[in-house]
Amino acid sequence: MRTSIRTAGAIALAGLLATACSEGRAAEAPPRVDLTDKVSLVSYTSCDDMLNDIRRKTAENATPWGVGGPAVYGRAFSEAADAMPAATAAKGAVSDQSYSTTNVHEAGVDEPDLVKTDGQRVITVSQGLLRVVDIESRRVTGTLRLVPKEQAWAQADLLISGNRALVLFEGVGGMIPLGAMAKVMPGPAGPKYVLVDLSGRPKVLSTMTADGMHVDARQVGSTVRIVVRSQPNITLPPPKPDMPESELLERNRKAVLAAPVNAWLPAFQIKGDGVTRTDAVKCEKISHPAEYTGTSMLTVHTIDLAADQTFSPDSPISVAADGDTVYGTATSLYVTSNPRWWLRPMVIDDMPMPTPRVTGKPRKPAPTPTTPPERTEVHRFDITAAGSPRYVDSGSVPGRLLNQYSLSESKGNLRVATTSNSETFGGARETSESGVYVLDAASLSPVGSVTGLGKGERIYSVRFIGDVGYVVTFKQTDPLYALDLRNPADPKVTGQLKISGYSAYLHPGGEGRLLGVGQEATQSGQTIGTQISLFDVSDPASPKIVSRFLQEKSGSEAEWDPHAFVYWPQSGLAMLPLQSWGGDVIEGSSALVLKVGDGGIDKVGLISHPSKTVQGSFAPVDQGIRRCMVIGDAIWTVSDGGLKVSDATSLADRAWIPFV
């Protein structure tokens, strides 16, 4: 039996813990490149050039248990905002469009989601099935199974352009750290992307499967850029019982230094027109920084939904770097890499682990390893031209960012909000603090910064609107900071507001207004239910709370995925899915509909879907609502069980479209 580098990385956490416990000493962190603020990248000139360099870099970062840290599979928390430009929405402008679209971060940059509409059709993907629903007749007019039923659990999202849909299935197999254990989850080897023709009965035009993990995708016009992260496919020798770590490390390094170049080249397979083609990114299309580990590749694939019948084998470009968060504008695609979680010696979930009894000659205490400072790498691609993007530059900032809303490009600068010293299993360190860093978007060189926000806390939400930024930090109370960003070289905090609870998502709510979606909390920081807050931010020096709505004993998907939040300024309606619980048990789900006005927030009501009886269960199964949409004078809600149409004013039922 031989162990691949991916498997070795997947068991690295368990190996670190087991070794630390068995030998009664601290677990050593794997080597790490300490990035400077500026990172220069160059392209490989040939495969020989690439192989000689990347072998050496990867070998330097090998450990006795593998190469690289444990990979956490699954999408990073995806955050989004309304489809209107943020500054326009903040001024209270109203669109003439009669239907809501996916709640996205930047105007004109679409993001994948489980449902899309063009005002005539609703297209959904759920449990491996794509469905097309005609809005006028309220009937399912087409279905298409995209993966076998045994893979129907795989997470999938959609992007559409005209009569084309791109379905993105995430590769969710891999290792998920669970405390001191490492659980290996079954699943597909990598993400799968399916191009579908919607012009008649839905049919598959082509598919692409990629070697690695789906990070995210963005669409500008009809062009989609897909970001995939991969690790080298190197076979490592299995460890022998009682083998010293020095020998394990030496064996792994020898395996790396003997690996062929295609072990690092990101591979993919394209099926279309009855032909299957397996390919990999060309060496000449791979760039690398002056300092890098060789343990990860970022690849960007491009497809034009208006023109292409299949995926192009010549479109992908790669960077020898890591990445887990994607932010896009109309002209730029940014991919950032958060620092990896580091194990603190003998501590899990902030509880000391029992020290094993050691017999025989006492050992000298091992030195405590120093945790490298947290830094977030930022990589920028130019997407102004058709076809493949152009790699521009890289840089880094201190700390860890929360999600894509921690990034915002404006007037030639990139603003980045991060929390430093936050990497513990039990929450923010007492020494943690947050800041906003401004980089020149062309070179990603430092321009200015403001730090010292929320000491002892971490960032829970960020929103940039024009020259103003809003940052929420939390531990027991919720400071909302307002920042003046007009001078990029000297950003300033202009005001702050402390209230109980926190906002996990911030959304423009009209002229001088800001909406917050999160949780109310006790003075000790214990959450008690979903809270929607309306802030008056007309005076950045003195933000105020206008109104707060609390739904006790509930939570909302919108807290971690703002695609689930809709604000419709034409009528002032705000909608989000809600899960209610009693004790530790989820009791049911619904869609919460609120009316937001200058004077406050009022509850309109709740929308629920019929429960479904599943064979073998003792009670009807609740069909959790995931998304809400406004189409004309109706609210459409989406669950795995079907679509419900409700009157936008009274919430009276108009139609139920079951997914049978």
From TrEMBL:
SUPFAM superfamilies: Tricorn protease domain 2. It comes from the Bacteria. Pfam families: Beta_propel. InterPro entries: Beta_propeller_containing. Keywords: Signal. The keyword Signal applies. Residues 355-375 are annotated as: Disordered. Residues 1-26 form the signal peptide. This is Beta propeller domain-containing protein. It comes from Planotetraspora mira. The lineage of its organism: Bacteria, Bacillati, Actinomycetota, Actinomycetes, Streptosporangiales.
